[in-house]
């Protein structure tokens, strides 16, 4: 295998499934029990802010009750063993990668434990409910919303992600259905820039054809196994 200097890893809801956090498009997933149009769009928030705040209160509580699983731990081990090589781009709004010890984590869809003040644009660590419309700690306005990228909004830090994909020697996708863009297009961008591409997922995804290799199974088994392999090749 050619020298690997830069690794970009994309994670989706599947990496946190074994920590007890619901995925979106599974049979009993979030989008089976909630309509995107009701809880995950700016129009929904304008129409019924209480419903949206309750949805994210529920997700915030679930995040705080969850613990990192062996997949999160293995990625943190990789990060520690290979300083500066790994960028972890996650579509997830939980903080399990960070709690497992990963250092370079980029939340492209925002963070469940953060609030965004639409008056002063501050982003504030937030673990309580927003239902009672608390004032922004920075400017005092009652203008806090979940710090989440909703359908129709632009994901965060896309320039940084595209730069990393251009430089990637290895692109690994873990626990995502490949249903939602722009994340679903990252594998093609990485491959066209020369990266080797690997998918670790419970089942084939919508992007599986773009990967040099796909391994199917639970992330808690596949990710530690792959991390051990890649660290052996490095040493
Ligand atoms: P998109 O066109 O990127 O995504 C459309 C996809 O969203 C569809 O393929 C489908 O998989 C899913 N979807 C749309 N409506 C749905 C529904 N009613 N039920 C179930 N699934 C549904 O969407 P977009 O508007 O271009 O999104 C822009 C960005 O916002 C994307 O990166 C997206 O991932 C992100 N986003 C984040 C959240 C969140 O909760 N963090 C929710 C929605 C979108
Ligand atoms: N191990 C590995 N993969 C798993 C596991 C597991 N234990 N459990 C589920 N998966 C896989 C499923 O097979 C599926 O392919 O994880 C994927 C989860 O897909 P989705 O539910 O669509 O979640 P995700 O791909 O993260 O959704 C992308 O859509 O609604 C938006 O913003 C939201 O970030 C989300 C984005």
TrEMBL record:
Residue ranges annotated for the Deacetylase sirtuin-type domain, each copy included: 1-233
Species of origin: Caenibius tardaugens NBRC 16725
EC annotation from Swiss-Prot or TrEMBL: 2.3.1.286
Gene Ontology cellular-component terms listed: cytoplasm
Family the UniProt entry places it in: Belongs to the sirtuin family. Class III subfamily.
Cofactor note: Binds 1 zinc ion per subunit.
Protein name in UniProt: NAD-dependent protein deacylase
Location in or out of the cell: Cytoplasm
